[in-house]
Amino acid sequence: MKEEVRVRFAPSPTGELHIGGARTALFNWLFARHNEGKLILRIEDTDVVRSRKNFSKSAMDSLRWLGLDWDEGPGKEGDYGPYFQSQRLSIYQKYAGKLIEEKKAYLCYCTQEELEESNRKMRAKNELPRYDGRCRTLSPTQMVNLEEKGRLPSIRFKVPEKGITYVEDLLRGKVSFSNEMMGDFIILKSNKTPAFNFANVIDDALMRITCVIRGDDHLSNTPRQILLYKALNFENPQYVHIPMILGKDGAKLSKRHAATSVSSYRKEGYLPWALVNYLALLGWSTADSQQFFEKEELIEKFSLDKVGKSAAIFDSQKLEWMNGEYIRRMNWGGLWDRFDGWWRIIQVEQEKQEKRANMFKEVGSTTTKMAEIIQVEQEKQEKRANMFRQFREDPDKMAEIIPLVQPRIKVFSDIFEQADFFFEKDFNYDSTAVDRRLKKDYVPSLLKEIRKRIEQLSAFREETLEGMARNLSKDFSLTTGQVFHPLRVSLTGKMKGPGLFELAVVLGKKEVLRRIDRTLEMLRKL
RNA sequence: GUCCCCAUAGUCUAACGGAUUAGGACACUGGGUUUUCAUCCCAGCGAUGGGGGUUCGACUCCCCCUGGGGGCACCA
Question: Which nucleotides of B are covered by protein (CB under 7 A)?
Answer without folding.
Answer: 1-8, 10-15, 23-27, 34-40, 68-76
